[in-house]
Amino acid sequence: MMKIYTRAGDKGRTQIIGHQVVQKDDARVEAYGTTDELNSWVGYIISTLTPQTSSLANELEEIQQLLFDVGNDLANPASESHREYKFDPETAAEATKWLEEKIDAYTNTVPKVKKFILPGGSKVAAALQVARTVTRRSERRIVTLKNQTAINNEVMGFINRLSDYFFAAARYANYLEKHDEVTYRNSKEIFR
Question: Which residues touch 191 (CB under 8 Å, ≥6 apart)?
């Protein structure tokens, strides 16, 4: 039986694809680790879906599958030429287009707004908004890694569009659950 623990990380190091050992706060580990965190958060969102929002389950699971490929590619040093990226240009283009179609459909369904929307609403919508911010953090970690070494550039467009998807999906979840959104008021409006 294979053990879950190896004790290799007890000194703050981990082994990445290609058997290279790096510090656990290495930019590569931060990038794929934050993407893994996002994937786990999407799994949590699926567990919170209501009968009204259950239509999001399949696409959220598909996003988890895609994030697994993105994480694999981020963990894969470009110098490992014997490895092929899972998130190739064709897959990335199709996945990004699919997200854009979802974004457009949800945006065309929900009421138009002229002000910023505060994150929140229903539990599902609030969780989707958290996913949006974790996606933005993942994107920042990916940019840091990209500034240090070669990466699979296909992940950038997908991750950028994914945060837009989570925003649109959060608004759509509020719409499905008939939950009013709260728009931003600046401090002058609040205290006058």
Answer: none
13 strand-pairing partners: 23
**Segments making up each domain of the chain, as ranges:** 30-181
Domain at 30-181, CATH class: mainly alpha
CA atoms within 13 A on the CB side of 147: 8
* Residue type (1 letter), 30: E
Report the amino acid identity of residue 133: T
Confidence check: pLDDT of 56 > 80: yes
Give me the helices (H) in the chain, please. Answer: 27-48, 57-75, 89-109, 123-148, 154-176, 187-190
Give this prediction's pTM: 0.90
Q: What is the band of 80 on the pLDDT scale with cuts at 50, 70, 90? A: low
Q: Kindly report the backbone phi and psi dihedral angles of residue 21, in degrees, each rounded to the nearest multiple of 5, phi listed first.
A: -100, 130
Lowest-confidence pick of 46-55, 70-79, 95-104, 161-170: 70-79
The structure tokens listed for 172 are: 């759509």
Contact between 39 and 159 under an 8 Å Cβ cutoff? The reply is: no
